[in-house]
Design a protein that fits this description.
The protein is of the alpha/beta class. Strand 1, helix 2 and strand 2 form a beta-alpha-beta unit. The chain folds into four domains: 114 residues, P-loop containing nucleotide triphosphate hydrolases (Rossmann fold); 127 residues, Rossmann fold (3-Layer(aba) Sandwich), CATH 3.40.50.300; 108 residues, Arc Repressor Mutant, subunit A; 74 residues. A six-stranded parallel sheet has the order 5-10-9-6-8-7, with helices on both faces.
């Protein structure tokens, strides 16, 4: 969205996890002292102390929540911070609030107004109907064969949605092997890779993007001719949101759901797994304490790499059920789990300048590396700074593996605190660990989510079968 605004000569910026802390600081300052018209933030970023301090100093004329159905759709199930966007309103009491969505049922519309604390909500609604977009449900035994048929018969750009990251790669490879320019996309890729793939698709170098639901939000590509769902969606809201990315130029386009009767059974099984019994939730919580060797009363605010499969195997737990237990613990405020996180490599010099100079004299083989680090990164003596090993290796004209080995050596020698990049999910304990028997679960929220999930699931099944 920022790129689209800039093309129209509208000053816009975004703060996201891929930015260096200095760049975030500068971006927020520009919103106070510069001529920026639009600042894009995630709900998680909105809650940080830094963002709130700077927002107090900004002249904010509008708080806009795009894709506002996420307040209801994601807020309860995946990202609780969506429910807390309204906490920013006291900092900007004069700013009106605008919520925008293309897919919201009447209950969701009401929910959005309540969660954003609308005092006198006004709803402006257009019809969901788009005459140029054909919605098609095809019952198929051979889904890959039908997808290939669609890709060959319908000219132009397409998006293919699947449930798992593994399938994004598999289906993209299937299409590529048949001379169709395809690529895959999911939240587990690092920001640079995601940007590169997205740009290639936007510019037409890639024709078909095979993705999880991580792809598409905020993207405005008018000439998408087809969107294919390989799996039955969890809800019609999610389906119409994703399918609606086709045909935004007003020309003929297709939204295709490839359905097999077994898909409904799979959705039912997923529903049962999504709401495990309380004893299983307590068992998973107990196992987490053992896994990270946390004593009762410890762990609050601590974050750890989390490997779901390894954890589940260690304690003989079903991975899917375990994942949903973790989500319920997250909803109840015990922990937070990022489904995918990319944390760039960072380093900091942990000796004085005099000690560093002495070390360089005694270890001249590291002198070019150390000089380059401090030349390319400012502030490494006082704070952790982001580095990109590949970029630094190119600058030094050395293999990346040799560079990483040298950084580890300097870390072991106590010169640098080097922290390699992470691509694993992060699990953070939000409260002190308690005995599993004393774990408090929000039963009312649990029942509400279960009922709402079942209603949406049944509506999706009805759409595919009737």
């Amino acid at each position: 969205q920022v790129n689209q605004l800039r093309k129209r000569n509208i000053p816009a910026v975004a703060v996201h996890s891929g930015l260096h802390p200095r760049a975030i600081d500068q971006t927020l300052d520009n919103c106070i002292y510069g001529n920026i018209k639009f600042l894009y933030l995630s709900p998680e970023r909105l809650r940080t102390e830094l963002a709130q301090q700077r927002i107090r100093q900004m002249k904010v004329s509008l708080l806009a929540v795009d894709e506002a159905h996420c307040i209801s759709q994601w807020g309860y199930d995946f990202r609780p911070t969506y429910l807390e966007i309204a906490t920013i309103r006291p900092l900007i009491p004069e700013a009106p609030v605008l919520a925008l969505t293309a897919t919201a049922t009447p209950p969701v519309v009401q929910d959005i107004q309540e969660k954003l604390q609308f005092r006198s909500g006004k709803v402006f609604r257009q019809s969901f109907e788009r005459a140029n977009l054909a919605y098609v449900v095809l019952q198929e035994e051979n889904k890959l064969g039908k997808l290939l048929d669609i890709a060959r018969k319908v000219a132009g750009t397409g998006i293919v949605y699947v449930r798992s990251r593994r399938l994004t790669e598999k289906i993209a490879r299937f299409l590529t092997q048949r001379r169709i320019r395809a690529d895959f996309y999911h939240a587990g890729l690092d920001p640079e890779t995601r940007t590169r793939k997205q740009d290639a698709w936007m510019q037409g170098r890639i024709r078909i993007m095979v993705s999880t639901n991580a792809f598409g939000m905020g993207i405005d590509k008018p000439d998408v001719r087809f969107v294919v769902h390989m799996d039955l969606p969890d809800s019609l809201e999610a389906y119409f949101q994703e399918a609606g990315r086709a045909g935004r130029d007003g020309k003929k386009a297709f939204a295709v759901l490839l359905f097999h009767p077994s898909d409904a059974d799979a959705l039912q099984r997923n529903f049962q797994q999504a709401f495990p019994p309380e004893r299983e939730i307590r068992r998973v919580y107990q196992a987490l304490g053992s896994y990270y060797q946390l004593a009762i009363g410890a762990g609050m605010g601590e974050s750890f790499d989390f490997d779901l499969l390894h954890f589940s195997k260690t304690y003989q737990l079903d991975p899917k059920t375990t994942f949903h237990c973790l989500k319920i613990l997250e909803q109840s405020g015990w922990l937070s789990l990022s489904e995918a996180v990319y944390i760039p490599s960072t380093l900091k010099c942990i000796v004085s300048r005099e000690a560093l100079y002495d070390y360089q004299l005694k270890h001249p083989q590291f002198d070019p590396l150390l000089k380059s680090i401090f030349r390319l990164t400012a502030g490494a003596f006082t704070q952790f700074v982001n580095i990109r090993e590949a970029q630094l290796a190119r600058f030094l004209r050395m293999p990346v593996e040799k560079l990483v080995s040298a950084l580890h050596y300097l870390h072991r020698d106590g010169i640098l605190d080097y922290r390699p990049q992470k691509n694993k999910p992060q699990l953070t304990f939000l409260q002190e660990r308690v005995d599993a028997a004393n774990l408090e679960i929000d039963h009312e929220l649990y029942r509400f989510r279960k009922q709402r999930h079942e209603e949406r699931m049944q509506a999706a099944i009805a759409y595919a079968t009737q």
